[in-house]
Structures are given as C-alpha cells and as structure tokens.
Design brief:
With 332 residues, the protein is α/β, with parallel strands linked by helices. Helices cover 24% and strands 25% of the residues. The strands form 2 sheets. A 9-stranded mixed β-sheet has the order 7-6-5-8-4-1-2-3-9, with helices on both faces. The structure holds flavin-adenine dinucleotide.
Length: 332
C-alpha cells in the first residue's frame, strides 16, 4: 500500500501535482490510499484516482499551522494503522510536515525527489544534484516520508474517478495549545519564493543598464510577484543566484503566469518554465524564441510597455485586451 497526502483547502481545485502524486503511487502499488486533509470541501466534489480516500477536516485557523497537519496524519496512522510509504508533494508546508513527522517517529525523510520507482520490492528514490546536472538514487523503506518535487508531477490529467471507498476521521487528539495560529500575513513580493508564487516576473539581459528598472519593481509590487530571471541576469547581478530560472537554476512549476521581460527564451531558460500555465513575453525582437512559448507576446522595448501595463492593472480592471495598452499581441 502507498499513502498519498493531499492537502485540499476549501474552494481550491485539486492540483495537477496531486493527481501526479497518485499516478506515481499507482505505479508502486495496487492499493493507494489518499489522505485528504481539507478545510470543509464536499466529498462529492473530489475526483481522485485512489482505492480509498480518508478525509480529515481542519478549521481555517488550524490550516496554516503545520503541527495541526502533523496531528491529522498522526490520527490517521493511529486509527487506521496503515503501513506503507507516505508520499507528499514538496512545498514549504509539506516540508515542515515531513520534518515534524520524522522527528516524532524516528523515520527518515527524503524531500524534493524527482521520481520514485519499485525494483524487486525495493523502493528507489531519484533526486537531483547540482541543479539537475547529476542525480542520485536512494533506497527507501515503507516507513519513509517522501516528498516529490511538483515540477515532476505536473503532466498528469485530472481524474474523473470517484474513490472506491470514502471515510471521515475526526481529529481526535488533544489540541497542541503551545502552537497557535495568530494571523494571516500576506508575504510581500520580496519574501515569496519563486517556486510558491502564482505569478512570477523574469528578467533578462534586455533590461540590463536600462533606465526603467524601477518600473519592473512597481509591476512586482502591483502583482505581488517575485522577480527571478535568466542565467545572464544572474551573471549581470540583476538577480541573486538562487533566483535563476532554468536548467541550471530553479523550476517554477506552480506559477500560473510568467512575465518574461527582456529574455530571449533559450532552451535552458524554457526548461525552468515548462509547466507554467501562461506566459506573457515582452521583447523588442520579433524573432526571439520566447514568442514561440508565450500566450501573449508584446514586441516592444519593455520601457514603453510597463507604464501602461501598470496603469491598466492599477485601474483595477486589469488588462482585458492587450490592445488596451497600445501594443499588438504577437501572432504566436
Ligand atoms: C550548461 C548551460 C546551462 C544554462 N542554464 C541556464 C539557465 O538555467 N537559465 C537561463 O536562463 N539560461 C541558462 N543558460 C544560458 C542560455 O543559453 C542563454 O544564454 C540565456 O538564457 C540568455 O539569457 P537572456 O535571455 O537574459 O539574454 P539574451 O539571450 O541576450 O536575450 C536578451 C533579450 O532581451 C531583448 N531585449 C533587449 N533590449 C530589450 C528591451 N529594452 N526591452 C525588451 N527586450 C529587450 C533582446 O531582444 C533579447 O531577446 C545556460 C547555458 C548553458 C550552456
């Protein structure tokens, strides 16, 4: 049996990465259990490809506190005593959860895995080394907590299946009052990690030594979007090393929108945005390869575009039509 942890906040759709996690589990075992920790979602709304779905509800106040998720998982383990590797999708929350679980149980964790396979009844976990230039294979056991990088889980389609069996569990453990949720703080664009943001701005050589860099920061502020960039942007010290996007940097798998400014769109850069849903590219060269990857392309110097884009966004209506900001969408 393999158990997959699926955190599902009310009103949010099941992410592709959650379906990907279940698909990975399917390849490992014919028995897959999904532990859905949720915040009030109706079970009829959930479509997951698993044999059994166990649901535990947390309150809105408990949701952001990792120790409440740990309590939910501990409840599940105690009540149902199921054996099997526990799979998670890597995120800041699940990384905290796996560390907490491992500390309590003395088990080992393997975080940010690329893949997990079975070979002669042994679980083998593949992990990246040196930003993807090499990888390592580690044996795992049934008691391991393993989290898989969402960048390697996003190719799976939404399931239309209803789980075969559904049960609800109460969170019947004494509440841990030493840790309490105080308030929600919206992180600013400077604090949000590129891999957690839903909108990311990427800058490249095209913005180097231009007078409109402040406009990029204003756009980041308006959209609350963190700024990353190309390898060249990193080498020109426009962004810190850990904000490089691409094959030798990070992958921004969770972003819905990527705004590429002054980036040509090399294959190495595109590798880091391959799972992004929508790309808006601003580049003054109509032949730049980024225009082949984008949904909306604006062929112009970025300095001419950003003031109007920012004004349109500040207006509150957003940009409904790219013609509104005076530039023709590239025919891509
Ligand atoms: C082993 C290896 C690993 C690599 N890993 C990565 C990686 O992880 N990530 C990565 O990004 N690259 C990586 N690269 C480098 C990659 O090949 C490219 O060199 C790099 O992505 C180019 O960066 P860029 O788009 O910022 O610059 P350029 O390719 O120089 O593009 C700049 C663009 O800005 C446009 N421009 C200029 N002025 C303006 C303006 N005023 N307004 C709007 N547009 C303007 C230009 O038309 C041009 O298209 C790697 C290379 C190798 C060999």
């Amino acid at each position: 049996m393999v158990i997959c942890y699926i955190p599902l906040k009310e009103g949010l759709a099941v992410k592709h990465s959650a379906h990907g996690l279940l698909a990975k589990a399917r390849k490992l075992s014919s028995q897959v259990t999904a532990l859905v920790v949720h915040c009030g979602i109706q079970e009829e709304d959930i479509r997951l490809d698993c044999d059994e779905m166990v649901m535990i509800r947390l309150s809105e106040r408990e949701w952001p506190v990792s120790s409440c998720h740990i309590q939910a998982i501990s409840s599940f383990q105690r009540e149902l005593s199921k054996e099997g590797p526990f799979l998670f999708t890597s995120s800041p929350l699940t990384n905290e959860i796996t560390v907490g679980l491992a500390a309590r149980s003395g088990s080992t964790i393997i975080n940010q895995a690329m893949d997990i396979t079975m070979d002669n009844d042994r679980l083998i976990v593949k992990r990246e080394l040196y930003g993807g230039k090499a990888c390592t294979y580690e044996y795992a056991s049934c008691s391991n907590y393993i989290s898989i990088d969402p960048a390697f889980l996003n190719y799976y389609k939404t399931s239309s299946k209803r789980p075969v069996s559904i049960r609800h569990l109460d969170l019947n453990v004494p509440k841990n009052d030493s840790i309490q949720f105080i308030k929600n703080k919206q992180l600013s664009w400077k604090e949000i990690g590129l891999t957690e943001a839903s909108c990311v701005i990427g800058i490249g050589r095209g913005v180097y030594q231009t007078p409109a860099l402040d406009q990029i920061e204003i756009l980041a502020e308006v959209l609350n979007a963190p700024i990353g960039g190309s390898k060249v942007a990193d080498e020109l010290q426009l962004i810190p090393r850990e904000r490089r996007i691409g094959s030798s940097g990070i992958t921004i798998a969770e972003a819905d929108i990527y705004i590429a400014i002054g980036i040509s769109g090399s294959s190495q850069h595109l590798e880091g945005i391959k799972n992004v849903k929508h790309v808006l590219a601003i580049n003054n060269d109509a032949a730049a390869p980024i225009f082949k990857r984008c949904d909306i392309g604006i062929i112009s110097r970025y300095e001419n575009v950003l003031p109007q884009l920012i004004a349109a966004l500040k207006n509150g209506d957003g940009v409904k039509n790219i013609e509104d900001i005076g530039y023709t969408a590239a025919g891509v």
